[in-house]
From TrEMBL:
Residues 14-251 form the GP-PDE domain. InterPro entries: GP_PDE_dom, PLC-like_Pdiesterase_TIM-brl. It comes from the Bacteria. This is Glycerophosphodiester phosphodiesterase. Coiled coil: none annotated. PANTHER family: GLYCEROPHOSPHORYL DIESTER PHOSPHODIESTERASE (PTHR43805), GP-PDE DOMAIN-CONTAINING PROTEIN (PTHR43805:SF1). The lineage of its organism: Bacteria, Pseudomonadati, Pseudomonadota, Alphaproteobacteria, Sneathiellales.
Amino acid sequence: MGLSNSIYLNTSGPIAIAHRGASAEQPENTMAAFEAAVSLGYRYIETDVHLTRDGVLIAFHDDRLDRVTAEKGKVSQLNWSQVKQARVSGCEPIPQLIDILNAWPNLCVNIDPKSDRAVQALAETVKQCKAEDRVCIGSFSGARLNKIRKHFDGAVCTSMGPMEVLKLRLASLTIPGFSGLAKKSPAKCAQIPTHQWNIRLIDKPFIDKAHELGQKVHVWTINDRSEMNRLLDLNVDGIMSDDAALLKSVFEARNLW
């Protein structure tokens, strides 16, 4: 399977991505949230993964259970038998990634491995589910992204790591000597916020440079209607939002759904 088969790369027009599922409607990163997004008609969702102590790959953002469940403890120090007893927002169980990939075999899933331990298990799960053409893997860790790329020999879509984003940002500026910095990135998209450390990342020069280099630009996490419209006017390739219903309504109003 080659990268040319990636659904993430072979789409026309911008895509709407439900961040942690329809997390404004249902508890984040749960089957209920993903089902809510699918029911709205979403073809793209975003999730995060951690590995339990006994090697089970779960869809969960934090490294601890504390914020979104009544249970406490680090995921990496708990067995699956303990984690599966927890309830997100007091009502929804924490799913395994394999259950998400198997439940919706045509659903595209953006996945962020939140720990080094999760990388190998993520690669194995994607292969087991034959989901190489419908996942995009992103991370704040360039090292994790490089491991994924080596594991799949470049045959899975990955987004840019922090240094790759920096090079693209610099290449987009009209500063002598910077224009060639981003030419060799193995990533196929930049998935970034509008600002980082009070520095603007997303503007027309950035998007134009990314497109010149064959890169998609997906922006997270946008929950404001006017900002969604502004970004679409700039010609971004995708928007991630917690408010799946709002994002859908914006896409519908622009005949993009």
